[in-house]
Amino acid sequence: MGAEWLSDEEQAVWRQLLTVESRLQDRLDHDLRRNHGLTLAEYGVLVHLSEAGSDGLRMSDLAVRLLLSRSGLTRRFDTMVRAGLVERRSCPADGRGAMAHLTARGASLLEEAAPTHVAGVRCYLIDPLAERLDGLRAGLEDIEQALGLGNGLVASCPDDGCVADDLGRVSGQPAGSAENNLWSAGQAG
């Protein structure tokens, strides 16, 4: 099986994407930690629970939205429970399930931290792109389509992932197929 190697230009773009994404998240995380004692990952939990309203979210749905395993979310969530930012309640529809809820303290911290986060996103991403935001959005939509993602939710992947044939073409589930799109398959909350 052969793969079509990346050209120098393609390799440079790939590495630049990885570097910029990592540095952007590091900078946003640093700003939140410095000003509010909150990590970017914790901020993400608070945002999703705030958007869910008083009903909260099933822990499994929150894990999907945060692109975490259930055990990864449990570790993050438990730390936030100890800090009084969130709480876990039993699911009224299913006693076995757990619901995640934002506490008053968590809502207050989110309200304080949101301007810092938004200012960072604006400073490091939105403003530097100025009139090129539509181009970035179009490029990201193309990448989501190639990955079989929709509406920001994680797609299920074939066990063997994507495989390059002798010509460097990639096979696997068709991009955007209903089987790979939790939103269109009705499995998202």
Helical/strand content category: mainly alpha
Mean pLDDT comes to: 82
CATH H-level superfamily of the domain at 8-132: Winged helix-like DNA-binding domain superfamily/Winged helix DNA-binding domain
What portion of residues is helical?
Answer: 40-55%
Extract low-pLDDT stretches.
Answer: 152-189
Main beta sheet, described? 3 strands, antiparallel
H-E string: HHEHHEEHHEE
Instruction: Quickly give the CATH architecture of the domain at 8-132.
Output: Orthogonal Bundle
The dominant shape is globular
What is the CA-CA span between the terminal residues? Answer: 40 Å
Radius of gyration: 19 Å
Highest-level CATH class of the domain at 8-132 = Mainly Alpha
Range of strand content = 5-15%
The DSSP helix count reads 6
**Number of E strands:** 5
CATH topology name of the domain at 8-132, in short, is: Arc Repressor Mutant, subunit A
Strand order of the largest sheet: 1-3-2
Give the helix/strand layout.
Blueprint: H1 8-36, H2 40-52, E1 57-58, H3 59-65, H4 70-82, E2 86-90, E3 98-102, H5 104-129, H6 133-147, E4 163-164, E5 170-171
Antiparallel strand pairs: 1-3, 2-3, 4-5
Helix pairs in contact: 1-5, 2-5, 3-4
Short overview:
The protein is mainly alpha-helical and about 190 residues long. The protein is about 55% helix and about 10% strand. The protein starts with 7 loop residues before the first helix and ends in an 18-residue tail after the last strand.
